[in-house]
Structures are given as structure tokens and as C-alpha cells.
Amino acid sequence: MVEADLLALLTDQSGLFTADPRQSPEAELIPEITGKNIPEEIWQAAGGTVKGIGTGGMLTKLQAADLARRSGTKVVIARGSSPDILLKIVHGEQVGTMFTPVVTALEARKRYILAGGNAVGTLYADLGAVNAIIHGKSLLPVGLSKIEGVFDRGDIVRVNGQDGREIAIGLVNYSSEDLSQLAGKQSMEIEKILGYAYGEEVIHRNNMVLL
To answer: What is the DSSP string of 133-145?
Structure first.
């Protein structure tokens, strides 16, 4: 939700191991996981014991790490009692186990938009706005010609041309009530009209996917 660049998961172990280091002298620290999928043997190592590093402890951290990396966030699992551990992690030092992101944060956001269910409203854009969107620009209030549906800020809405053709889908910055007042207006007028502003764009290009 916060689109963090980094997730640090602190535990009583130095990171993720090939086996429970308390039970297996041969257990080795895994310094980095870069593949798209975490290997099955690593999942088994994280959840293969009843106590300590296994079930409920490291397993849930591994699940959280996998979820975060698929949202574009780098993850580090490390020993929380190590001196200056957070500073070392933030500075990129090799500590614990590091999980590289599977996708960029922007890609993850656009996947979420596409998979976010049915759009709750539709915005109709004039020809100039449609051309701007097709060329990678944001949707501005001046380009709005019509609004359908009732929605809040942050909802997923569709963007159509005036002929009804679907152009894009995205996360809207303003509610339908706000946009009914902003349609056709310049971005510099937003705060004057509403008394507040959430940005110049109705939908920012980073929060929009062309259809």
C-alpha cells in the first residue's frame, strides 16, 4: 500500500538458511534470492521444523518477503540484534538474506490496476486528452467531457473517448463529486474550486494502463 522501496524483516537468526542452523551443522546462510520463484527446497527449509526458524517464524517471513518482492519491493531478512543492522541494510551492505524485486513498483501497480476488479465509473475524454493519453501523458481535468458512476478518490475507473471506445483504466485522484465540478477546468483552478488539491491530474500516467 505504501509502495516502500525496502522491507526489512528482523529475526533472531542471521538470515534464511538452507536448513535450521540450530539442528543442522551443515546449514548455510543464503545471501541472496534473485529468481522469479523461490525454490521449493527453500520453502521446505523455512517450514520444515516445529520450533525456532521453522513454522510460524521464518515461514511467515518468507511468505511476506515473496509477496513484497512481487510488488516491486526489495526485502532483507536479518538478525535484529546485530549492531546498526538497519543502517547496514539501508546502505546496501551484504547482511542477512536479500530478495531482489521480481517486478518494478510501477509494473506491480499497473498489474494491480488491471486485476483490481470491475471499474466503478467511467470518464469520457475529449480528442486532445485521448491523444495525450495514447502518447503517455496523464489525464487532466481540462480534457474531461463527461463523468459516469459514483466513485471515490483511489477507485479504479475507465477512460473512454467521446465515441465510447475504451482507452485506458486507472486509479482516479478525485471523487466523482469533485470531478463533476472540475470537468473542463484548468489544473491551476482545482484548489480554488474544491478548497484543496490532490495533484494536477485526474489520473496520473503512472496509475493508468492503456487498453
So the answer is: HHTTPPB-GGGEE
Give the neighbor-by-neighbor strand order of the sheet with 122-125: 144-148, 122-125, 156-161, 166-171, 208-210
Domains observed in the chain = 6-103 (3.40.1160.10), 112-210 (2.30.130.10)
Which range has the worst mean pLDDT, 72-86, 106-120, 167-181? 106-120
Name the more confident of 4 and 176.
176
What is the DSSP track for 1-42?
----SEEEEEESSSS-BSS-TTT-TT--B--EE-SSS--HHH
Grid coordinates belonging to 149: 458512476
Using a 10 angstrom Cβ sphere, with 0-12 exposed, 13-18 middle and 19 or more buried, the burial of residue 91 is exposed
Distance in angstroms (rounded) separating the CA atoms of residues 194 and 178: 7
pLDDT attached to residue 1: 62
Predicted local confidence at residue 116, as pLDDT: 62
CB of 95 within 8 A of CB of 80?
Answer: no
Q: Which residues contact 28 (CB under 8 A, 6 or more apart)?
A: 17, 18
Confidence (pLDDT) at 26 = 84
Mean pLDDT of 178-205: 96
Size of the chain in residues: 211
Tell me what the mean pLDDT of segment 192-207 comes to: 94
Nearest Cα residue to 90 out of 76, 73, 101, 80: 76
Kindly report the average pLDDT of the chain as a whole number. 88
